Amino acid sequence: MYVRKRALASAVAAAAVALTMLGTSAAHAAPDSGKQTTGSAVARLDDRLAPDRTARATVAASAAATATLETIQRRIADYVATHSTKYTFGSYLDATTGKIVVDTDAPADLVAALIKPAGTSAAHLRAASEVQVGRSTISDFWHRRDDIQPYWGGGGITQTAGVAWCSAGYAVRNGAGTRFSVTAGHCFANGVNVLTESGANPYGTVSNRRLPTVSGHAQDMELVGGRSYSGRIFTGGVTSTSSAPVVAAGTAYVGFSDYCHSGRTTGEHCGHTATSITGQVCTSTGCKSPVIVFNGGTQPAGGDSGSPFYVKDTSGGAWIRGNVIAGNGVTSYAERYIDVAAAYGVSIVTG
Q: How many helices (H) and strands (E) does the chain have?
């Protein structure tokens, strides 16, 4: 199911510039000379066939732990709204322990106030006492290197030619059939004319930006439109010309341990475990929730923001679950596809 772009015998000047800047050894094919085109615009596969559907949490969280987490996340969001984004926070229920995890760089006294019990019952007191606090700073991923139309997810996109910025996510379409590329909302401002990473090709114009510090939404997403976007995502390394078709999209499943991401900085890596799909992450761009929380495998890095988060079936097809927005090198966070679809009234483009 994987395909490879056919290299040109002699690259056009713009492609040559791109390759020089990025250190790539093979040129892309022209838009009409071998790049895989997009198939059906709407996923038709039955979600009951999804390879991650049967995953379950190893340890079920108690009602008290769930309620306590909701209270903690509300306190964190209120704190960030009042005191700005000086400190970072990641919070979720760990599917392997059933306990609450809070990763933060905030001082101990502030953390203690934020994680205090949500009630007076023994169960609430126990849930609060078992909160696992990790000390780390979580950052937005700001940073495949060049692409041509129709554009694939996972490629490098920027607003400054040759400068690593963010990654494209996946293609969606609205009710009128217009296609867009989804990426992280912290990447570009509304109205920005986005380029492929080398600057050789215009990628599209940003609209519908949703970000706490900009629009007030507890989300990190935006659309890029005006060009041709395909239902495929890059696979392989950072200068790869191979791809996989998108076959469906939907919710992630807690406990599944072979999710993948594919971005301009780290390329494609799998082996990620979803530990939560109702997490919260607070960075310099505000608090976002609910989000997918995942760890394990080679984690995304700066510049992978916006990149697709997905699972592959036995035929190599990609089932989109979201797009990467933040992390600390050990644990990462992804905006959920189901929330993107609901916010914009869009559906997945398949390949």
A: 5, 22
Structure confidence by residue, pLDDT tens digits, 187-222 = 999 999 999 998 989 999 999 999 999 999 999 999
d(CA 27, CA 77): 46
- Give ∠ CA 213-218-224 in degrees, rounded to 5: 75
| Closest to 285 (Cα-Cα) out of 89, 154, 151 | 89
Q: Which residues of 36-67 are buried (b: 16+ CB within 10 A; e: fewer)?
A: bebeebebeeeeeebebeebebeeebbebbbb
State residue 166 phi and psi, 5-degree precision: -145, -175
Beta-sheet strands, E only, within 29-174: 89-93, 100-104, 132-135, 139-140, 151-153, 156-158, 166-167, 171-173
Q: Residue 195: which H helix or E strand, with range?
A: strand 193-196
Crossing angle, helix 63-83 and helix 122-129, to 10 degrees?
Answer: 60
pTM over 0.85: no
Domains of the chain: 3-54+140-348 (2.40.10.10)
Give the bridge partners for 4, in sequence order.
242
| Token pair for 3 | 């395909």
3-state secondary structure 258-299: CEEEEECCCEEEEEEEEEEEEEEEEECCEEEEEEEEEECCCC
3-state secondary structure of 151: strand
Q: Tell me which residue of 208, 196, 271 sits closest to 234, measured CA to CA.
A: 196
Record the tokens describing residue 127, joined without a space. 């849930």
Q: Which string of b and e fits 79-106 if b means at least 16 CB within 10 Å?
A: bbeeeebebbbbbbbbbebbbbbbbbeb
| pLDDT digit string, tens, across residues 245-268 | 999 999 999 999 999 999 999 999
How many residues are listed for the chain in this entry?
A: 351
d(CA 190, CA 34): 33
Q: DSSP code of 324?
A: E
